[in-house]
């Protein structure tokens, strides 16, 4: 069965390679974490997940984090490359709270598609609903997911190789930490303010800068999805009419559902509006966010 068909009737199972878990346990884990990350997690119940960012005090992104509440505690899923740095920040902000941190050796999988919740439940592993693509989704975490994966496949999942996930995330404009944005960017530049930031909850690390940029300022650049006339390569220069350089391609792939060439690019604010006509490596491109 084709991956695009599975997205409608089942789910794509994507192994979380390159991800790591920091586990927080203790009576204060929710209130403590809520004062650190951008999303509101203070009322996160067992079996729920939320996408968030950890900012430094000047508002730039230390890492993105998936927060999953399980019977074992709060599993904070982060890119493995920055897990040590994230752990250091979290430890630094542990003072008198009843919270203990550990680094369990667990496996992680992400599900994408309309039946993700049903398939995740059928896997038998701890899971939470988490929709990064707008097509439905879930996250699954466990000591070993081999049996869980087999049960998920029996329930309608298709195990997707990395290239399939790459196609889907570019098509659905899901930026990747360390590829499309990094620690030099603000949430608004990564186009993650809507997906990962609460502007109504109490204080958290970097909140003042994030709030001011959202309500009284403007980010100088944004990650956008481009629909291309011909395939691009990361690093290709994005230009405006007249040839002025306005950005750079960070990811590129043929779409999974819509088999057109797409790219994610970091471009200057003036050229990030829907419908803006640009060029990538000299070929026409248009800013075209997913529906």
Could you tell me how far the N terminus lies from the C terminus, measured between alpha carbons in angstroms? 24 Å
Give the mean pLDDT: 96
Give the spatial strand order of the biggest sheet.
Answer: 11-14-13-12-15-16
Low-confidence stretches: none
Q: CATH superfamily of the largest domain, called what?
A: Probable tRNA modification gtpase trme, domain 1
- Global shape: globular
Fill in the CATH topology of the largest domain.
Answer: Gyrase A, domain 2
User: How much strand content do the residues show?
Assistant: 25-35%
> Structural class given helices, strands, pairing?
alpha+beta
- CATH class of the largest domain, named Alpha Beta
In helices, the fraction of residues equals 10-25%
State Rg: 19 Å
Number of helices: 8
Question: In the CATH hierarchy, what is the architecture of the largest domain at level 2?
Answer: 2-Layer Sandwich
In short:
Helices cover 22% and strands 33% of the residues.
Structural write-up:
By secondary structure, the protein is an alpha+beta fold. It folds into 2 domains: 169 residues, Probable tRNA modification gtpase trme, domain 1 (Gyrase A, domain 2); 72 residues, Elongation Factor Tu (Ef-tu), domain 3 (Beta Barrel). The protein is built from 8 helices and 16 strands. The strands form 3 sheets. It has a 6-stranded antiparallel beta barrel with strand order 11-14-13-12-15-16. A 5-stranded mixed beta sheet has the order 8-9-7-1-10. A 5-stranded antiparallel beta sheet has the order 3-4-5-2-6, with helices on one face. A hairpin with a 5-residue loop joins strand 3 and strand 4.
């Amino acid at each position: 069965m084709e991956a695009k068909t599975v997205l409608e009737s089942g789910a794509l199972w994507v192994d979380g390679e390159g991800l790591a878990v920091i586990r927080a346990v203790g009576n204060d884990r929710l209130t403590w974490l809520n004062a650190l990350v951008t999303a509101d997690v203070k009322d996160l119940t067992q079996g729920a997940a939320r996408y968030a960012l950890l900012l430094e005090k000047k508002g730039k992104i230390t890492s993105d984090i998936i927060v999953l509440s399980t019977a074992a505690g709060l599993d904070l899923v982060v890119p493995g490359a920055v897990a040590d740095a994230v752990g250091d920040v979290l430890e630094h902000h542990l003072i008198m709270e009843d919270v203990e941190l550990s680094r369990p050796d667990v496996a992680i999988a992400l599900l994408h598609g309309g039946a993700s919740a049903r398939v995740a439940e059928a896997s038998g592993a701890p899971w939470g609903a988490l929709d990064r693509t707008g097509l439905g989704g879930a996250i699954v975490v466990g000591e070993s997911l081999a049996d869980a994966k087999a049960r998920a496949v029996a329930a309608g999942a298709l195990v997707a190789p990395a290239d399939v996930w790459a196609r889907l995330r570019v098509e659905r404009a899901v930026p990747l930490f360390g590829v499309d944005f990094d620690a030099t960017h603000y949430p608004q530049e990564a186009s993650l303010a809507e997906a990962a930031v609460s502007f109504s909850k109490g204080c958290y690390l970097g909140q003042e800068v994030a709030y001011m940029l959202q309500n009284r300022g403007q980010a100088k650049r944004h990650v956008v999805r481009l629909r291309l006339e011909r395939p691009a390569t990361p690093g290709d220069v994005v230009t405006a009419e007249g040839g002025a350089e306005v950005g750079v391609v960070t990811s590129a792939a043929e779409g999974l559902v819509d088999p057109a060439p797409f790219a994610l690019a970091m471009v200057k604010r003036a050229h990030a509006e829907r419908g803006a006509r640009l060029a990538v490596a000299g070929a026409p491109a248009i800013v075209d966010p997913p529906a």
